[in-house]
Amino acid sequence: MEPIGIIHSPFADIENMPIQPKGAAHVEGTVHFRESYVEGLKDLEGFSHIYLIYIFHKAERIRLTVTPFMDSTERGVFATRSPLRPNHIGLSIVQLVKIENGMLTVKGIDVLDETPLLDIKPYIRNFDSVEDSLSGWMAASKDEVAKKRSDGRFK
Amino acid sequence: MEPIGIIHSPFADIENMPIQPKGAAHVEGTVHFRESYVEGLKDLEGFSHIYLIYIFHKAERIRLTVTPFMDSTERGVFATRSPLRPNHIGLSIVQLVKIENGMLTVKGIDVLDETPLLDIKPYIRNFDSVEDSLSGWMAASKDEVAKKRSDGRFK
């Protein structure tokens, strides 16, 4: 696997970041696509939201249980979005603002500056909207998520 | 990157599969987790839906433009869910039925049997639900997606 681009954000350090796009709704970032892949972006501009699949490049360890920012109890890492998961793969849904010359401007970015991008997929309502989901231990309100910030625990 | 488990489904061949989980709502599959990672599944059972991130292991080529099953026009591969994308990463949202001894039973599976799993993430409504999204060229109804089947074009 090799990066198809690099994500740029205002977050240079893993501490004090929003912990999810919902906590970063107005934060803009850019995705710089590798020139050889720009052709693959055709038609993407019609989608309002996209998935970014990327590497948590500052995660240096793997832990099978973690204490999430939203919680005070150890949880299995696959029941969280922690970077310390095996393979260190991250997933965020962001708003697509524009595409110009192989550069995407996105809104609601919650990743570190210089994050290597592995894939982009369109958010397709017919495939991706989930009705009546249950979110297990994660009972926090949107307001609470928006206020939470990271610390250094997931380096 | 190495698989954290293997996905089993009734689909042995890339032809005549449902093209998305919405077309496979009642299809059950299982995820067999690597024993060394089973501890990381703790607390996942409280979530009704999960993301599977996996490798399109039968995709042998990369194409930057493709003609999707839902369409008759060539689209940029990143504006589609085609397997022929760089890095060959797949993403599906499935319903979590149960977890027993490191084996997950899931519903709504749309991947090939023996698919290597890279990551599982909980679907968290507060992070992942998108209101008022626009789905670009993809204007098909849920009914239409449910009826569509794959053919051999994405081998």
Describe the structure.
2 copies of one chain form a homodimer. Chain A has 155 residues and is mainly beta. Chain A has helices at residues 125-128, 142-147; strands at 5-8, 28-33, 49-55, 65-66, 75-76, 89-100, 103-107, 115-122. A 6-stranded antiparallel β-barrel of chain A has the order 1-2-7-6-3-8. In chain A, strands 4-5 form a two-stranded antiparallel sheet. In chain A, a hairpin with a 2-residue loop joins strand 6 and strand 7. The longest helix of chain A has 6 residues, at 142-147. Chains A and B meet through strand 3, strand 5, strand 6, strand 8 and helix 1 of A and strand 3, strand 5, strand 6, strand 8 and helix 1 of B.
Note the quaternary state here.
homodimer
Strand share of the residues of chain A? 25-35%
Give a short account of the largest sheet of chain A.
6 strands, antiparallel, barrel
Rg of chain A, nearest Å: 16 Å
Total number of helices of chain A? 2
